[in-house]
Amino acid sequence: MTLIKKSPIEILNKIFGYKNFRPAQEEIINHILKGKDALVLMPTGGGKSLCYQIPSICLEGVGVVISPLIALMQDQVIALREAGVSAEFLNSSLDFNEEEEIIKKLLNNELDLMYVSPERLNNENFKNILKRTKISLFAIDEAHCVSQWGHDFRPEYTKFRFLKELFPTTPRIALTATADDETREDIIKNLDMDNCRIFISSFDRPNIRYSVQIKDKEKKQLLDFIKNEHISDSGIVYCISRKRVEDIAEFLKKEGFKVLPYHAGLSSKERELNQDKFLKEDGIIMVATIAFGMGIDKPDVRFVAHLDLPKSMESYYQETGRAGRDGLASDAWMVYGLKDIVQLNKFINQSGASDEQKKIEKRKLNLLIGYCETTGCRRKAILEYFKEKYTKDACNNCDNCLNPPLTYDATIDAQKVLSCIYRIQNERFNFGAGHVIDILEGKRSEKVLKFNHDKLSTFAIGKDNSPHQWNSIIRQLVILGYIRVDSEYMTLSITKEAIKILRSEEKVNLRKYILQPKIEKEKEIKKDYTFDNNDTQLFNKLKQLRLEFAKAENMPPYIIFHDKTLTEMVIKKPSTMEDMKDITGVGERKLQKYGEAFLKAINE
Ligand code: ADP
Ligand code: ZN
Question: 8-200 in CATH: which number?
Answer without folding.
Answer: 3.40.50.300
